[in-house]
Amino acid sequence: MARIVIIGAGMSGLAAASRLATLGHRVTVCEASGTYGGMVGRYERDGFSFDTGPSLLTLPAVYRDLALKTGKEPLEALVGLSPVDPESRHLFPDGTDLLLPNASRGGVGQALDTAFGLGSGERWGEVMNRARAVWEATRRPLLEEPLPADPRPLHTDPYPAPPRRGLARLTRRTATLADVADRELGGHPGLTALLYEYALRAGLDPREAPAGATVLPYMEQSFGVWYVRGGLRALADAVFGRCEQRGVEFHFDTPVTEVLVEDGRACGVAAGDRRFEADLVLSAMDAHRLAEQRIAPVQVPAGGTPEVGRLTVLLALSGARPAGTPYRTVVHARDNAQELDALFDHPGLARHPTVQVHRPDDPLLVPDAAHEAVSLTVTVPVKAGPGLDAYADHLLDHLAAAGLDLRERVLWREILPPTAPETPPSLAGTAGRYLNPPNRSTLPGLHLIGATAHPGGGLARAGMSASITAGVIGPA
Known about the structure:
Domain Amine oxidase: 11-297
Largest sheet: 7 strands, mixed
Region (Disordered): 146-165, 417-436
Structural class: alpha/beta
GO molecular function, one term: oxidoreductase activity
Pfam family, one: Amino_oxidase
Protein name: Phytoene dehydrogenase-like protein
Oligomer: single chain
Number of strands: 20
CATH architecture of the largest domain: 3-Layer(bba) Sandwich
């Protein structure tokens, strides 16, 4: 039995704690805040409840595996889980209204043909076929296994070169998502906006992200998105409950200030005057912060992604949720180029940005059937600056102009500014720029998990970082 201390009770910390305790280790978790779940938080007021981080689950197999491995029962025995259908509604500045089905690539193609004209679905489908090749090439090394000791093969983007004819043969190969949009989607404004939305949601600049980032829409459209009854916070509750069942010891309001080292190896952590001895330490805190603030003597490659995050506006609305309302509506930016400039070139708040509108059909989130809980999320620079209250007003006007007017129904709202940059998933290509640090750190006895370690950001990958690391450590 090893004594293991985990820094952070976010989803990766909870998943790792439950797995390692099940394997027979003695696990202690130190959490700086007063609760668990990290970004999977909840805001409650006047009978309304909102997720304050992610709100939908992709790749539920990750947490199904966790439920089975730590308790021999299906995930559905712990939380209510249902596929979201339709997957999303998309409103474009030219008035086009697109409804995408969940987990149906054929259905997506038909919807695109209906919205944008015949041939649009075929174009998109060809891109998704090439994205499938990326998925098959990178699924194991970038999602299921430790980062290879020699990651150089992952420095090359596995996105297949599309057939090129005529003068196109003389141009450079497709290298970025923007290249995919221009060359393979024909620069179609709607298809381009659809592709870019997946990138922006992950904090990626489509002009620099590798073409292999097409794997993001491929995964979502192939494997679907799922809703957890009561919001994703219910998933954090379930994993925390599993930790308690397995005897994990939690210390909240206990920020770790130092990873203790003896004979060149991590031997515990310090939290102010308190000491927690350990044979192994797992850190779920930002890996770059861990190094920059000298909490641990580790070497972490400099981050290669711009500092953009998620601005969230929570809306308590009077009136019932209209029947047939999709869970997620995306109001696309009026001008893609202007939005990218405001995010990545001259950081500021885009005037008419891409907005995610989340409208769950869940009675657990509202005081009664005569009210609705709605969340707006927008990708913005982390240092968005002042004026967020006026910007929230502007966002409501922006939605109204797109045909989604919620203004007269607002009882109150809460603005949650971005507190940290979005951390994209690990991606192959661009000389390794989008690879996150390996789980086994440069300090023996210290492992890295969570969004800023392999395999990167996102709820599914948080669970996978825990699974990979627990597999490396093994049973007691």
